[in-house]
Design brief:
The protein contains 2 helices and no strands. It is mostly helical. The protein has one domain. The chain is elongated, with a radius of gyration of 16 Å. The mean pLDDT is 92.
Length: 68
Amino acid sequence: MTDEDEGELGAELAKLQQEHRDLDAAIDALHQSPAPDLLRLQRLKKRKLALRDRIAFIEDQITPDIIA
Protein backbone atom coordinates (compact mmCIF):
# COMPACT_ATOMS: atom_id res chain seq x y z
CA MET A 1 0.00 0.00 0.00
CA THR A 2 1.40 3.37 -0.98
CA ASP A 3 1.53 6.45 1.20
CA GLU A 4 -1.07 8.06 -1.06
CA ASP A 5 -3.46 5.13 -0.50
CA GLU A 6 -2.94 5.36 3.25
CA GLY A 7 -3.62 9.09 3.14
CA GLU A 8 -6.86 8.56 1.25
CA LEU A 9 -7.93 5.82 3.66
CA GLY A 10 -7.04 8.02 6.62
CA ALA A 11 -9.13 10.88 5.25
CA GLU A 12 -12.08 8.55 4.60
CA LEU A 13 -11.68 7.07 8.07
CA ALA A 14 -11.80 10.51 9.70
CA LYS A 15 -14.90 11.43 7.69
CA LEU A 16 -16.67 8.18 8.62
CA GLN A 17 -15.77 8.54 12.29
CA GLN A 18 -17.21 12.06 12.32
CA GLU A 19 -20.40 10.85 10.66
CA HIS A 20 -20.61 8.02 13.22
CA ARG A 21 -20.34 10.56 16.07
CA ASP A 22 -22.98 12.76 14.43
CA LEU A 23 -25.35 9.81 14.11
CA ASP A 24 -24.76 8.95 17.75
CA ALA A 25 -25.77 12.48 18.74
CA ALA A 26 -28.84 12.36 16.48
CA ILE A 27 -29.90 9.02 17.95
CA ASP A 28 -29.51 10.36 21.49
CA ALA A 29 -31.56 13.44 20.59
CA LEU A 30 -34.31 11.28 19.12
CA HIS A 31 -34.37 9.14 22.26
CA GLN A 32 -34.82 12.28 24.36
CA SER A 33 -37.76 13.57 22.32
CA PRO A 34 -41.23 13.04 23.83
CA ALA A 35 -42.51 10.98 20.86
CA PRO A 36 -39.53 9.53 18.97
CA ASP A 37 -39.98 8.51 15.36
CA LEU A 38 -39.20 4.81 15.70
CA LEU A 39 -38.74 4.19 11.97
CA ARG A 40 -36.24 7.05 11.68
CA LEU A 41 -34.49 5.82 14.81
CA GLN A 42 -34.17 2.33 13.34
CA ARG A 43 -32.76 3.72 10.07
CA LEU A 44 -30.21 5.85 11.90
CA LYS A 45 -29.07 2.86 13.96
CA LYS A 46 -28.76 0.72 10.83
CA ARG A 47 -26.66 3.42 9.14
CA LYS A 48 -24.50 3.70 12.26
CA LEU A 49 -23.83 -0.06 12.20
CA ALA A 50 -22.89 0.08 8.51
CA LEU A 51 -20.48 2.92 9.29
CA ARG A 52 -18.95 0.93 12.15
CA ASP A 53 -18.33 -2.00 9.80
CA ARG A 54 -16.72 0.25 7.17
CA ILE A 55 -14.57 1.94 9.83
CA ALA A 56 -13.36 -1.46 11.07
CA PHE A 57 -12.55 -2.52 7.50
CA ILE A 58 -10.52 0.64 6.82
CA GLU A 59 -8.67 0.35 10.14
CA ASP A 60 -7.72 -3.22 9.18
CA GLN A 61 -6.42 -1.98 5.83
CA ILE A 62 -4.29 0.72 7.46
CA THR A 63 -2.89 -1.51 10.21
CA PRO A 64 -0.02 -3.61 8.85
CA ASP A 65 -0.24 -7.36 9.13
CA ILE A 66 2.13 -8.70 11.76
CA ILE A 67 3.20 -12.28 11.34
CA ALA A 68 4.11 -13.79 14.68
